[in-house]
From TrEMBL:
It holds the Pfam family GGDEF. The modification 4-aspartylphosphate is found at residue 55. InterPro entries: CheY-like_superfamily, Diguanylate_Cyclase, GGDEF_dom, Nucleotide_cyclase, Rev_trsase/Diguanyl_cyclase, Sig_transdc_resp-reg_receiver. This is diguanylate cyclase. NCBIfam families: GGDEF. One of its GO terms (biological process) is phosphorelay signal transduction system. Signal peptide: none annotated. One of its GO terms (molecular function) is diguanylate cyclase activity. Its EC number is 2.7.7.65. Residues 6-122 form the Response regulatory domain. It catalyses: 2 GTP = 3',3'-c-di-GMP + 2 diphosphate. PANTHER family: DIGUANYLATE CYCLASE DGCM-RELATED (PTHR45138:SF9), REGULATORY COMPONENTS OF SENSORY TRANSDUCTION SYSTEM (PTHR45138). Residues 165-294 form the GGDEF domain.
């Protein structure tokens, strides 16, 4: 994959596209849209643009409407937008910036100005992406962190309650991890954590959320996955972890799995049931998978 940033050029006039491309094609990967609808499609397709250069005056949907839709879409709201347009009044520029654009360039296009301003915005976007990634990922394992997990889980639960579907949660706790640290040292413990994280990450789908929950605990959110499928997946992962020998250290883990009850159950309840199942797995001798009790059973207990 190229390390070049990707820029989406949007203009209904081919000569304007060719002029912009001439300024930028040696430095960036370019995607081109000749209307607003195509812009919205390309903004969500891989590779996702790092910056959009957007004309205002276009047929069917003008640039202002395109900008509004991009900013209202959670998948595209963080893509910076630069208007490149012949509308040069103060009111037009003010509107563009109020809609969320990071810059407003008026035509006729001056290649040196476009190149400089695009370069600045690409650097800012890359810095922002780096900071966002650091805020959402665990530094040791590179998995998502607890903060991101809770945010993503609440969003998934809300979606399922509105539109239906299934969601299962898998909680994993490394067995006897304190003894690993005490016997082999914390650096060896970190190696074990990274090895387990690698198994969980490589064994999961793109739509799943794999997170380090804290200490030696991990959580995997499984989209469109029943408790039976989650049980099969957990058993596969348990077996793979058992085969790990990082730095000559034998590793096993205990698994608790639970499926969301969409009739009123929150993520906190789902997590608590999976956590209780992990506790039962520990009681049953560790290195096993236990399905959680239903929420009703927990209340009766």
């Amino acid at each position: 994959m190229s390390d070049k940033a990707t820029i989406l050029l949007v203009d209904d006039t081919r000569t304007n596209i060719e002029l912009l491309a001439g300024c930028l094609q040696k430095t960036y990967n370019l995607k081109v849209a000749m209307n607003g609808k195509r812009c919205l499609e390309l903004a969500e397709s891989e590779p996702v643009p790092d910056l959009i250069l957007l004309d205002v005056i276009m047929p069917d949907m003008d640039g202002y409407d395109v900008c509004r839709q991009l900013k209202d879409n959670s998948s595209t709201k963080d893509i910076p937008i630069m208007f490149v347009t012949g509308k040069d009044s103060d009111e037009d520029e003010e509107l563009g910036l109020q809609l969320g654009a990071v810059d407003y360039i008026t035509k006729p296009i001056r290649p040196a100005i476009v190149t400089a301003r695009v370069g600045t915005q690409v650097i800012l976007k890359q810095q922002s992406d780096t900071l966002r990634s650091m805020a959402l990922h665990d530094q040791l394992t590179s998995l998502f962190n607890r903060h991101y997990l809770i945010e993503a889980a609440n969003s998934k639960v809300a979606r399922i309650k509105r539109h239906g579907g299934t969601l299962s949660l898998m909680m994993i706790d490394i067995d006897y991890f304190k003894l690993v640290n005490d016997k082999f040292g914390h650096q060896a413990g970190d190696t074990v954590l990274r090895a387990v994280a690698s198994v969980l990450s490589s064994g999961s789908r793109k739509e799943d959320v794999v997170a380090r929950f804290g200490g030696e605990e991990f959580v995997v959110l499984l989209d469109d996955c029943s408790i039976l499928d989650a049980d099969d997946k957990a058993e596969q992962l348990r077996s793979l972890i058992e085969q790990l020998i990082p730095e000559g250290i034998s590793v096993t883990a205990s698994f608790g799995i639970a499926e969301l009850d969409p009739d009123g159950e929150t993520f906190e309840h789902l997590l608590a049931r999976a956590d209780q199942a992990v506790y039962l797995a520990k009681e049953q001798g560790r290195n096993c998978v236990v399905q959680a009790k239903s929420e009703l059973d927990i209340k009766e207990d």
